[in-house]
Amino acid sequence: MHRRTGDLMIRHCGDQAPRFATQLAVHFERGRDFARAVEFLIHAGDHGRQINAYEKALEHYSRALSFVPRIATELRAPRLLTIYQKRGAAYLATSRFDQAAEDFTSMLEQARVMSDRTWEHTALNALAEVYFYSHRLDELDKCAGEALRIARDLGDERLRVETVVFIAMRQDIIGELAQAKCNLDETIRVARPLGFKRALLDGLAWRGQLYFFQSEYQRAEEVLRETVDLASELRHGPLFFQAQFFLGLSLGNMGRFSEALMVLREATALAGRNGEQYWLAKIPNCIAWIYRELQDFDQALKYDLEGLTVAKASRVREAETNSLISLGLDRTDASDPQKAMESFGEAAAILESDVWCRWRFTLRLHAGLSAHHLSRGELEKAVAYSRLLLESATRYEARKYIVVAHKLLAEAAYARQDFAEAEDQLNTALTQLADYPVPILTWKINSMLGRLRLRLLDGSATEAFEKASTVVQMIASNIEDEKLRTSFLTAPDVQEVFVKGSVFNGG
């Protein structure tokens, strides 16, 4: 009766039968037709992934796997490949890297038993992706190397560029940015006309991140919005969250804070519903950064502490590093030098043991240490860290941090009353900002330039304060929360822009 009911449902629903996969799987399981039970359990798992219900998807795939030994021998191998691939992807989407690696390893072994080199390549790529996110870069190298050899042996350009992406991802993380840029641009160039969406998604996601790293925020926004849409279409959880994460940061750097908060909070809510721990550990630190830029230091501290707690619990080392650096900044702002240095020290210790994005976090660490020593009047140490920051930021073309370094050097020069040097540093920063705008820095640089010229009784102080005021008003106009906007506009550093400019004008 169950088999007949399933047959009737399929006959009635036709091509729409997979929409009722869960019910059909039950009928065929109870009707002892295990081949079709497996088929529709896979469809049910796919539906779960499509609506981001990964726990249900995993349940369906695992049940399908349990029935494979009960189907015809000739059907088992292809079903095993499919289930391991799909369940591994669901594990990856929820940051369960060990389980994902187990499934993709089983997939690889099955492909080799079948002597199917295309499936072998697919499994190696899947493993490379898992090894990437779990910081096992040596194993990634091995998998990517084997996959490239297969792609070249088969003469398949699609397979080749699919693997090139993982090589580029590794290059991005260890700071080989020129090589990463070249490989990502090639991937996008080849994949787009071929309609090869998966390789295109990978290329866009990592190219968008690289645009962000090098402070090309408008270009980053364009590429990352395309990435979000494509990741949604392909149901690729990790790249969807990654694109949302860097989109939020790019919007924030452009002074569009309400949009940035909305994007990051949407990503947090979705990650929470899916039990996704990796990005849940990384996002609080970014929300804290936005509040710090809006001069709400209490909220910044709250989110940084939350981020550190979640990162430690989830063992996401890069999120822990970032949160510790941010806490160092929070505690510097709160005039708690001992705890600030403890936070910076813990971050430095992690960076010593983990190469993952070390180049990027070192920029933040040097900027934080310079700011800390400036606040203590320890000018030699501040200048030393600023110069290290400038050297590294220039090497990696991290334009925002080039500007930050010049600003810190200007502050040290101002404290020494070397006003000519301070003005040179600020003007150099503004020249950089003209080509690579970062509004959240532009107003601060112009405000400091105005303060410097006011000290020198230079009439051009008015112009500097006016430029700072224009950017501040633009940022404020993009803050939808009235309370947050008022808090920003009444913060002491922001009020200085209006008050000192007004005083100098005789207002």
| Tertiary shape | elongated
Secondary-structure class: mainly alpha
- Output the helix-strand order: HHHHHHHHHHHHHHHHHHHHHHHHHH
Fraction of residues in β-strands: under 5%
Q: What is the rounded distance between the termini?
A: 89 Å
Helix content: over 70%
**Largest sheet entry:** none
Average of pLDDT: 92
User: What's the helix count?
Assistant: 26
Using DSSP, what is the number of strands? 0
**Radius of gyration in whole Å, from Cα?**
27 Å
Which spans of ≥5 residues are poorly predicted at pLDDT below 50? none
Question: How is this fold's topology laid out?
Answer:
Blueprint: H1 2-13, H2 21-30, H3 34-50, H4 54-67, H5 73-93, H6 97-113, H7 117-133, H8 137-154, H9 157-174, H10 177-194, H11 197-213, H12 217-234, H13 237-253, H14 257-274, H15 277-293, H16 297-314, H17 317-333, H18 337-353, H19 358-375, H20 379-395, H21 399-415, H22 419-435, H23 439-455, H24 461-477, H25 482-489, H26 492-504
Helix pairs in contact: 1-2, 2-3, 3-4, 3-5, 4-5, 5-6, 5-7, 6-7, 7-8, 7-9, 8-9, 9-10, 9-11, 10-11, 11-12, 11-13, 12-13, 13-14, 13-15, 14-15, 15-16, 15-17, 16-17, 17-18, 17-19, 18-19, 19-20, 19-21, 20-21, 21-22, 22-23, 23-24, 23-26, 24-26
Q: Your description of this structure?
A:
The protein is built from 26 helices and no strands. The chain is an all-alpha fold and 507 residues long. α7 packs antiparallel against α8 (137-154), α9 (157-174) packs parallel to α11 and α13 (237-253) packs antiparallel against α14 (257-274).
Briefly, what is this?
By secondary structure, this protein is mainly alpha-helical. The chain has helices spanning 2-13, 21-30, 34-50, 54-67, 73-93, 97-113, 117-133, 137-154, 157-174, 177-194, 197-213, 217-234, 237-253, 257-274, 277-293, 297-314, 317-333, 337-353, 358-375, 379-395, 399-415, 419-435, 439-455, 461-477, 482-489, 492-504.
